[in-house]
Structure formats: structure tokens, C-alpha cells
Amino acid sequence: MNQDSLAYFPASKLARLLASGELTSVELSRSILERTERLNPQVNAFLGWDGDDLMAQAEASDNRRQEGKALGFFDGIPVALKNNIAIKGSLLTCGSRMLERFVSPYDATVVERMKAAGMLVWGRLNMDEFAMGSSTETSFFGSTANPWDLTRTPGGSSGGSAAALAAGMSPITLGSDTGGSIRQPAAFCGIYGLKPTYGRVSRYGLVAFASSLDQIGPFGHSVEDVARMMEVICGVDPKDSSSYPAPVSPFHAELELALSGGRPMVLGLPIEYFKADGLDPAVRRAMDEVIAYYKGIGWQIKDVSLPNSHLAVPTYYVIATAEASSNLARFDGIRYTHRSESAADAVDVYFKSRGEGFGEEVKRRIILGTFVLSSGYHDAYYLKAQQVRTLIRNDFAKAFGEVDLVLTPTTPSPAFVRGERITDPLQMYLNDIYTICPNLTGLPAISVPCGFALENLPVGFQLIAPHFEEVRLLTAARAYERGNDWHTKHPAL
Amino acid sequence: MEHIDIGYTAKLARLELSAEEQELYSAQLGRILEYFHVLSSVDTSAVDPTAHANPLHNVLREDVAVSGFGAQQALANAPQQREDQVLVPRVIE
Amino acid sequence: MASVDGYDAVIGLEVHVQLGTESKMFTDAPYYFGASPNELTNPVVMGMPGTLPVLNKRAIEKTIQVGLMLGCEIPDVSKWDRKHYYYPDMPKNYQISQYDQPLCLGGSVEIEMDGPSRNVMGEHRRVSLTRIHLEEDVGKLTHVADGSLVDYNRAGAPLIEIVTEPDLFSPEEAFAFLTSLRNTLQNAGISDCDMEKGQMRCDANVSVKPVGTTKLGTKVELKNLNSISGVRNGLRYEIERQIRELKSGASIVQQTRRWDAEAGVTSLMRTKEEAQDYRYFPDPDLMPVRISEEWKSQLAEGLPELPFDRQRRYMADYSLPYTVTSVLCTNRGLSSFFEEAIRHHNNPLAIANLIANDLLRELGVASAGSEIGEGERRSLDSLGISAAGVAELVAMVDKGVLSNQMAKEVLSGMIETGQSAETVAAAKGLRQSSDTGEIEAICRQAVDENPKAVQEFLAGNEKSINAIKGRVMKATQGKANPAVVDQVLRKLLGVP
């Protein structure tokens, strides 16, 4: 088996090879480690990894399999995690100086689930600091490169997770999504990325950015991979009161069943999204082709209206920064974070440690979030935004009365050049225009690779489903996958 | 047009900012707030705020104690500690 | 309303009470007093990244029970909010509390003022409450020479905050309020309310206004009132200070002041300008609580009688005097002991007196009528004496088998040995003799030997019979039944 071709096998394919004995987990892990060691200096997807530990886990998996005790379909498959998901005994930096040396004393619930399924949890993937950013350029540990074009960003904040998968450094990765942080990098890197319904996946062990918006989700080379990964990580958790007791069924099987049933779906196109000036012509072209494809398989495309779309970005940024300012208050130089050496008294510890420990974007958002919650402004900003959020929810609820899924571009344009946007925060925020509504409403959404813009830059489209209808999302994605091969294309690294 | 008192807000957030940072943020956040102004254009007087994405209530836990992880682990990442407690510089009351 | 120097005081209290649960409010780490530093911690307690809170059901139920006992309105829905401020004892730099939809609204606490004398019940009145809500406690700071040490054992323990309306009008009323609240909560097993252990804490808001005016003065918040007497003393000082200020022409600035019990003064901590902006908003990590009528009824079922209600019942049904009931009704242990004892032998007064005086003296607590200090309670269990045993002892006295004097000795013996009244009395050879024959013989002798006393008695001096009685008692080593002796003597002397 060619080492490098292994790199791009979808995890499900690798799992079948492990099951049939044609491949061992040790062989797979060794090839992954070699590739990572070789490519990471260029891509900087990984902040760190423990090769010995990965190999030990791989050995254990192979032993289990030999004894006929494989723990699940993905037993022996390595999965690398964004460095804001807690792994016991591992550094949990969140891309920040503030947590540069923080070793987590506990495992996130998703990590417990993956370990229980026999997966090899490894590595720490780069990210925008505290998940705040759309390019992985705010990381204290340097930015990550887009494997398709090393001068460009892989997107953010889960840029490391997307780049690692796109570069074949890990067959599955996990990221987190608060305003598009899985889907946008997925689109920029030509891979699948899914944000589950809010409450599907436990947030216990995910360092909180915006508590009412955050979700952990998978990146994958195929719809099947994403579906099967969802089966591993989804499920209500008594440690996370916001997690929802929705049943977790075999999504990968259900979507195939749905497809074989042959029922055509109705896809809605929000007229407000397609009017947008900022839509790159390549993205617009790709979208036209996607629409043509679905029509071609007998599905219906319909216009829908989401009248409050123009309010989404400000609503998102008010709520996200408010919750972030609160969630990051605990990082103060006192108990377990960076502490400034020049603090004269306790009060100074706070000011200086936080001044030194946080980067520019984080500080900017903390100030904004503190402001919108502060006395005199709370009602006009925070309360107002939460009310508009209800209006946006209602828009989608109404749309889903007419269509099965909503179809949009994932991003207005493909990956931009590193350093190009970082000096204009507002410009950066406007990038999120298509991805933030699923976070505000809690709806599940997936980015599907659908072509390339000039300069070989991937483009993705997004599907949004009603709450807990991940199967519907995955069915439509698979329907597209069956007739297209964008997801099989890989960068020449 | 709203204007953020950066100095006061940074103090509330316990962030020490340099003079340059204060100036930079003042300009950037001013523009951002101006953009946020569009929120006031919509009437939400009859709308309930969305507190939670999911309509859950009474998510409760039985009152059963499980041993903690103890002082050593609690303080493993502490910048400074003494006698099994976190040590901070003098707190002025 | 007791005015001082031409001014009336208006006081509001904020009382925090630790609920005696097994685990903390938002995580399953244990909570108890006296653990070694930072032992009762876990990632959630320490506010580590990625951790989340989960509500403690029993803490919520206890809070609702407190509300039901105090006549509060329990709303249909209650929610949780974040209250932000920075301090080293705050693991997350926000406290999870309740802002606009607390678990209990309104309500009142019955208080008793001092009567004209110790034996006479003082006036009762109800002090209105604003609300009661549930929140988490913070860690503990200890100052050392070169800094401060932080112990997070207490961080996250469940606390209820009871807020009164500005409905108290003297330091003595504040004292009475806290005493009544403590008794009520102890009685219901909600908390021991030991202020020394930090189980109950109190902040006060106080203002003064000229007598006869209605507009409230500027209020000052008092902190560091570390005992119930401290609350009274701190308020007394602060009221006098405010009056002094006003009389000198100055005005009162809204501020927070710290009581120093040793120095006996309050000093400025912070002014209103520096007041905190807590930036409350609903906690996204916690879901609201919906309280059904069914749940409320279930919780109401286990509730005990309130101490003052019980006291009134004892005074009415058992004709017990006020002083004795005051002692019995402050402690559920004492009152249930009493109620069990009277089931075995129906002499409520004697039994009540025995418990309130003799038993409590054995416990090292001041007897009926004087102030029972904080932290002085030990349980009756430690005496090793049962309610049935006490009933038996009183029954023996009632039957004339023991004199009151003998009964005291027998009681000590019962506590020492753990044996029954009968056994101890027999062992000590304590038995009152009512044998008329034996007594008559000794009486005759005493009469013969005390002609002077006899003569005086027959002349009309009632008290002279006591001298003769004394001789008889001495001759019988105190074992003769005094009532029988009296009867026999009068018969011998030919007096009815």
C-alpha cells in the first residue's frame, strides 16, 4: 500500500481495511506520523503531538482486534483534535499564551466517547486564539497554511483541523464551530465539515467561547466518515446541561436508506443571500452548478426569504462577544494560567496577566462583549440581540415549512491571502455572513466541497437542516457526493 | 452614535491596555458599533429573547458527592502555591 | 420603633445561609466543614477551561422548602444568571446566582422582641422579606505577610440569600430576626446556621431619618458582621455615627462600610461611585427550573411546625409557662424529646422543667430564662438518656417514690451510668418513705423533743412546724415524704 495514498483514504475505507486485516493500526499510525513530521513545518496544522503515545494506542487497538474485541467501527483510527478540546495530561492551549502551559487534568466527554470506541485520540491542532477568528492567524503559536496554497489561510478558527485533514495528516479531525469555525475552514480546504444541532454533542471539555453557540463537530473526506463520526460523538451528557436527549441512530445507514427511497427533496435558496454584492464570481458559478446538479437528479429548488438576514452579523457579534467576555473572565493569572511577572499586588495580577496573556483579537472582543453587557447598554445591545435572534429563528422555522433544507454558499469567497484581512476586524466579521445563522438558531449545517475557484482554491456549499435532522443533511450531501468527485481531490503536498 | 469608553470598559474587564491599544480599539470598535446600530432599526417590543437554543428545563442532578481530585491536581497548574493553597500577591481590601 | 436622639433607623438585612447538602451547588464535589485546603475541589470547582455547571436538585428543594416555611410565593419558573466581579476567591470571576426570577418571592419572618421582664413574652411581629434566591459560595482568602492564600473548598457550596424589606427598625429587631431565622432553619434541618463556621452570614443596610418623617435617608451597607451580636453592635454603632454626622451638618454618602468588632467601629470600604457593575445575564449553561404544583405539595409535606407556632401550642395545650417553652422550642431535638416523654407520662410541666433546667444544665448550657449563646448546642443524644427514661423519673416523683431532691441525684446517676431511674434509685438507696407507721413513730419523737416549737405552732405560728419537720427529715436522712410528714404531724398535734 502506497504510504501517501493511505493519507487520503477516507476513515471509513481505512476502517474496513483494518477490519479485513489488510492494514494494521500500527502501520496506519506510522504512516500518519511520518507524513505529519514531514509536512507540519510547512503547514503548521499541529501545535504538538506525542508519537509514542499514538503508536502505543495503535498497538493496543491491534491487540484488541486480534482478540476479536474491537470496540467499534472506528477502532484503531487516529483522530486529531483542535486544541480547545480537553485531553487529560495534554496541553490545552486554545492557541493562547494565557494557557501556554496549562495541562488538562481531565478528558472532554467527546474524548471519553472516542476512546471508548477505540479511536486513537492524538495531537493538538492549531486554532485562532480562543476560537476567535476566521483564519487561524490570531493563534499565539503562529498561523496555519492552507495546504492548497501555502500563502493562504485555511480559514478559522478550526484552521489546524481542516488543514491537517486536507493535507492527509490525520484521517479524521475534530473542530469546534461558534460562527462557522468548522464549515468555513472546510470550504477553504475542500473537505466536509459539519456543525451538529446545538445540544447534540456535549460541550463538557470544550473550552467555551460563546456557550449558547458552540458545538464540537467532525471534518472528513467523505459523507460516510462524517456520519459515522457523529455516531461516536453525539449523545446527551449529564455533565452538560445544555445537551439534548435526542436519540443517536446509525446516521450512516439511515442516509443510505433515505437515498434509496428515492424521495426528492426541496431545497430553499434564501433570496437575501444570493442578492449579496460580496459574492465572489467563482462561488456564484459553483453555486449555479450545484443547483443544476440537484435539479438534474430530480430535486426541487425554491426561493425562500429570510427577511432578518441583514441583522445576523451584528446579532451574532453582540451575543458571541458578550458570552465570550464572560467565559474568559476566569483566565486571570490566579489559579492556572499565565501570570505576569511584574504584578505588584493582586489587582495588578489581573490587569497585567490578562493584558499579556491575550492577543489583540481576543482583547478586542472582550472589550466589545463587556461593553454590550454593561450597565446602561445591556438592553440596547445584548437584550436586543437576543430578541432579534428569536426573529431569525422564526425566519428559518417558516422557511422549513416550505422546504426540506436551505442551500447557501458556505463563504462569500474562497481562501484569502495570509495577512490580508487581519488588520480590518469588521471585514473579517462580514466573512461569516452565511455561517452564523445555524449557530444563532442551533440548526445543524454542513459544508460540502463543490469545486474550485481560480488558483486551485476550493469552494464549498452549505446545507442547513431543521433541528436534529442531521440525517436529512447527510442524505442531501451524499446525493451530491454520488455524482461529483471534488472531495477526492487533494493538494499536491 | 455610540462611543465606547475604552478605558472604563477595559477596567471592568481587568485588561491592561497600552495607549496604542486603546487608540486602536477605540477606532475599530467605534466602526463596529456603528455597524451594530442596524439592530435598533427593528421593532422587537413583542418578541421574547432567546435564552437557550433548546427548550429544556429541570436539568437536575441528585445530591450525591463524588470525591474531588484534591489539592495536588487542583494546584498542578498554579503559578504560585504554598501549603496546598494558591498564593497571590497581597490583596488590598 | 425606638427612636434615638430624634432619629428613627430603618434597616434591611441580606442573610446568606449555607444549605447542608452532600455535594456542591453546581458540581458533585463534596462539601463539608473542616477538610484540608483544596481537598474538596475538581475541575468545575476550580473554574478550569471547558467545565460546566449542573444543578443540585436537593439544594433547589431545600430552598423551596425555606420559601414555603416563610410564606413566600414560589413562581412557576425560576432561572439562573451570571453575576460578574473579579476576586481571587472567585474561580470563574462570575458567580452563578439568580437575578430577576428567583426561587422565592415575598414571605416574612416572625420575630419576638424582648418583653418587660425575662418571664414575660415580648411583642411579636412579622418582618417582610423581598425574596430568597439560590447561588454558589466563594473560596476563602487568608492573608499572610507576603500575599494571600486561597482555599477553594468552600467555593461552589450552595447558599441561599434571604433579603428583607427595609422592615427592621432597631439593632435589637435585627438581633431578634436573625435568632428567629436561625431557629426556624435549624428546626427544619436546613442548616445549622453557625456563624462561626460561616454557615450563616449577614450584611446590613441602614439609614436614619428624623422622627416623624417618611422619606428614607441614604443607606449605608455594612459588611463583616460576623455574629448575631456583631450585627446588633455594628448597627448600633453605625446608627449613632450617622446621627452624629447629620447633626454636625454633614450628609450621608451611599457607601459600604466594614465593621471591626474589636475596635467597635465601622470604616469606609467603597463608595457608590466605585460600586460594581455586575453585568448580569442569563447563564447559557443552565436551564430554567419549572416548579409544578405537585412538586410544591411534595416538598410542603415534610415541613415541621415553625418554632413560634409550636411555642404557642405548648402554652395553650400544656399550660407551660413562656420561659420553659422558649427553651424547648428553639431546638427541634428538645421539643421532640419532650413530646415523646409526655407520651409515656402525662405531666408536661414537670417534664418540661426537667428538660429545660436539669438536662440543659448537664449539657453545659445556660438554663431557662437566660440567653443561649451561639455554638453552645450539643445534642441530647450525648447524654445517653431517653425520653421514656425521663418520663419514668418524673412518674416516680409524682407517685411519691422520690422527692424532688432525690430525683436530681437520680438524674445525674442516669446520665453517668446510662441506666434506668428505677435501677439508679435502687443502687443509690434513694427511696422516699411514705410508710406512715414508721414516720409516725419518728414524728412522735420529734414532737416530744421540740416542745417550744410545738407550743409556738399551736399558738398560731404556722412556720414553726417546719422546725419539727426538719428534725423528722434529718432523722430519716431526707427519705421521708415531706407531704406525709406534714400530714402526720398535723394529725398528732390535733390540727386539721
The counted number of beta strands of chain A is 11
Percentage of residues in DSSP E strands of chain B? 5-15%
Q: What is the SS-derived class of chain B? A: alpha+beta
Largest β-sheet summary of chain A: 11 strands, mixed
Low-pLDDT sequence parts of chain A: none
Largest sheet of chain B: 2 strands, antiparallel
Order of strands, widest sheet of chain B? 2-3
CATH topology of the domain at 3-254 in chain A: Amidase signature (AS) enzymes
Shape of chain A: globular
Write out the CATH superfamily name of the domain at 3-254 in chain A: Amidase signature (AS) domain
Terminal CA distance of chain A reads 18 Å
Backbone structural class of chain A? alpha/beta
How do the strands of the widest beta sheet of chain A line up side by side?
1-3-2-4-6-5-10-11-9-7-8
Give the total of beta strands of chain B. Answer: 3
Q: What does it look like?
A:
The complex is a heterotrimer of chains A (493), B (93) and C (496). Chain A has 493 residues and is an alpha/beta fold. The relative contact order of chain A is 0.14. In chain A, helix 6 runs parallel beside helix 7 and helix 12 packs across helix 15. Chain A has a domain at 3-254: Amidase signature (AS) enzymes. Chain A has helices spanning 3-7, 11-20, 25-43, 51-66, 109-116, 159-166, 183-189, 223-233, 251-261, 271-275, 281-296, 312-327, 346-357, 360-373, 379-399, 425-430, 436-441, 470-481, and strands at 46-48, 78-82, 120-125, 172-177, 192-195, 215-220, 266-270, 300-304, 405-409, 445-453, 457-464. Chain A is 41% helix and 13% strand. By secondary structure, chain B is α+β, with helices and mostly antiparallel strands. Chain B has a domain at 6-41. Chain B has a two-stranded antiparallel sheet. The model of chain B has no long low-confidence stretch (mean pLDDT 92). Chain C has three domains: 7-295, no CATH class; 305-428, no CATH class; 436-492, Arc Repressor Mutant, subunit A (Orthogonal Bundle), CATH 1.10.10.410. Chain C has helices at 57-69, 171-187, 228-247, 293-301, 307-317, 322-328, 332-344, 348-362, 387-398, 404-417, 421-428, 436-449, 451-459, 465-475, 482-492; strands spanning 7-18, 55-56, 77-78, 81-84, 94-97, 104-105, 108-112, 124-136, 140-144, 147-151, 158-164, 200-210, 220-225, 255-260, 265-271, 281-282, 289-290. Chain C has 496 residues and is α+β, with helices and mostly antiparallel strands. In chain C, the strands form four sheets. In chain C, strands 1, 6, 7, 8, 11, 12, 13, 14 and 15 form a nine-stranded mixed sheet that branches. In chain C, strands 5-4-16 form a three-stranded antiparallel sheet, with no helix packed on it. Chain C has a two-stranded antiparallel ribbon with strand order 3-17. The chains are: A alpha/beta (493), B alpha+beta (93), C alpha+beta (496). At the A-B interface, helix 12, helix 13, helix 14, helix 15 and helix 16 of A face helix 1 and helix 2 of B. Strand 1 of chain B pairs parallel with strand 2 of chain C, so a sheet runs across the interface.
